[in-house]
């Protein structure tokens, strides 16, 4: 299949005139028979890659997806585009529906499946009978303990791929440091894998760090900065209280119009603020990291971090919201001595304590963040003992502490910051 044909499919089947960066390169690598790890930013159109490839090979494609909601969303979007030969195998079906799906698998172009379902013998055996054209691992960073959303059930992908006869594999993710990339490839157990990377370097974002001695200096510095900068911009805080406080101060002392955004606000308030920001009725949002996912505003001129983000990878993702229109923009990381202690305390509080385990076992309820709770649910449901779970969290904790200190290294780095990010 040649280049014009691929363009033609893009136009005729999907209605797009040109590829986004990384899409065509990935399709070409797949066409040459390689396994590919493709790292493209959120919104780059990763799904389109396997959708186009499916028209080139005319064999069924199996897509592993970590969340029911993501899976259903994809299925709906494909149906909307006019393909009805798509199915999702997940815990929502009863055995009768499942039986009927499994006996008709060869009729589907796209088969979405959760990693747990792939583990089930009956399902695995039915899939093994197919002539699978491509095996896609969506959100592939979930396989790495160093990734931001580690999903233990992704670890069985390697043995399941083997049972399926090691079909050609495409791994997709938006976030992967060098370390996570290597880990993904190792854990999935694929050699001769090409990597297509289209995310990290954003040359139009100027990278700066501003150190101050005390918290008071930091506050007045921020206000001073905002008299010089033009919006729209985002300022990230790790504390909701501080986000409220500084937002008030910005409204009082600068010409910029600001509002806070965090989990304590009602859904309707958050919705309102997001829209005011999109419509340029607000210059600044003082936010926690709850703000950002799904925010696609192209003219954001600055992203300031008042507190340290979780790690370098989250930092890169958060500042990546600036300058999507290609215009010069700036990312400023503010730091005063000892800030890492705040981050360490926060990290500490996101791990289960003895009380949390007790509470969890008694009431299946705790005050942990979503991700930790999900992991705890998973481990208990899969028969891990409490001491095994504690060991896993302990390892995870020390990894996260390391990642935090990597960020401190970035702050203290004297060479080119862009190079530091790319090397890590
Ligand atoms: P990702 O998984 O990379 O975050 P998606 O696959 O969900 O992104 O696609 C995001 C949006 O981009 C979708 O609405 C999709 O239709 C659109 N899209 C994909 N490829 C292109 C393209 N070449 N040109 C324009 N829009 C595209
Ligand atoms: Mg996606």
UniProtKB/TrEMBL annotation:
Pfam families per record:
DEAD (PF00270), Helicase_C (PF00271)
Q: Provide the Helicase C-terminal domain boundaries.
A: 221-376
Pull one GO CC term from this UniProt entry.
bacterial nucleoid
Sorted keywords for this record are: ATP-binding, DNA-binding, Helicase, Hydrolase, Nucleotide-binding
- InterPro entries cross-referenced by the UniProt entry: DEAD/DEAH_box_helicase_dom, DNA/RNA_helicase_DEAH_CS, DNA_helicase_ATP-dep_RecQ, Helicase_ATP-bd, Helicase_C-like, P-loop_NTPase
Gene Ontology molecular-function annotations? 3'-5' DNA helicase activity; ATP binding; DNA binding; four-way junction helicase activity; hydrolase activity
Looking up CDD domains in the UniProt record yields: DEXHc_RecQ
Q: Which domain of life is it from?
A: Bacteria
BP-aspect Gene Ontology terms? DNA recombination; DNA repair
Give start and end of each Helicase ATP-binding domain.
Answer: 27-194
Read off the NCBIfam families from this record.
Answer: recQ_fam
Q: What protein am I looking at?
A: ATP-dependent DNA helicase RecQ
Native source species: Fructilactobacillus sanfranciscensis (strain TMW 1.1304) (Lactobacillus sanfranciscensis)
């Amino acid at each position: 299949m040649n280049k014009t044909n691929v363009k033609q499919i893009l136009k005729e089947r999907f209605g797009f005139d040109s590829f986004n960066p990384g899409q065509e390169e990935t399709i070409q690598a797949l066409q040459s028979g390689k396994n590919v790890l493709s790292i493209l930013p959120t919104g780059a159109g990763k799904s389109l890659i396997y959708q186009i490839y499916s028209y080139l090979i005319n064999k069924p494609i199996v897509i592993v997806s970590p969340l029911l909601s993501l899976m259903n969303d994809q299925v709906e979007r494909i149906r909307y585009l006019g393909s009805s030969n798509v199915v999702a195998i997940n815990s929502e079906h009863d055995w009768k529906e499942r039986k009927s799906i499994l006996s008709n698998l060869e009729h589907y172009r796209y088969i979405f499946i959760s990693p747990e379902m792939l583990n089930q013998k009956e399902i695995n055996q039915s899939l093994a009978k197919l002539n699978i054209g491509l095996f896609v691992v969506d959100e592939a960073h979930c396989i790495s303990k160093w990734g931001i959303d580690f999903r233990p059930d992704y670890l069985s992908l390697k043995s399941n791929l083997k049972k399926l006869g090691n079909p050609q594999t495409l791994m997709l993710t938006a976030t992967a440091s060098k370390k996570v990339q290597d880990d993904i490839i190792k854990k999935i157990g694929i050699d001769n894998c090409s990597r297509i990377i289209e995310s990290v370097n954003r040359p139009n974002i100027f990278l700066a760090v501003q150190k101050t001695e005390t918290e008071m200096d930091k506050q007045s510095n921020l206000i001073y900065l905002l008299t010089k900068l033009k919006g729209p911009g985002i300022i990230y805080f790790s504390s909701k209280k501080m986000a409220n406080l500084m937002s008030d101060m910005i409204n009082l002392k600068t010409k910029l119009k600001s509002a806070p955004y965090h989990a304590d606000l009602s859904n309707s308030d958050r919705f309102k603020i997001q829209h005011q920001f999109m419509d340029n009725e607000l210059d600044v949002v003082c936010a926690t990291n709850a703000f950002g996912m799904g925010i696609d505003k192209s003219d954001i001129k600055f992203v300031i971090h008042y507190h340290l983000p979780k790690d370098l990878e989250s930092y890169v993702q958060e500042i990546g919201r600036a300058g999507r229109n290609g215009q010069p923009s700036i990312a400023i990381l503010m730091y005063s001595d000892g800030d890492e202690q705040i981050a360490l305390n926060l990290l500490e509080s996101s791990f289960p304590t003895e009380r949390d385990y007790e509470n969890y076992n008694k009431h299946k309820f705790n005050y942990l963040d979503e991700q930790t709770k999900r992991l705890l649910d998973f481990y208990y449901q899969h028969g891990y003992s409490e001491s095994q779970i504690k060991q896993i969290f302990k390892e995870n904790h020390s990894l996260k502490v390391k990642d935090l200190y990597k960020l401190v290294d970035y702050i203290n780095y004297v060479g080119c910051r862009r190079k530091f990010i790319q090397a890590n």
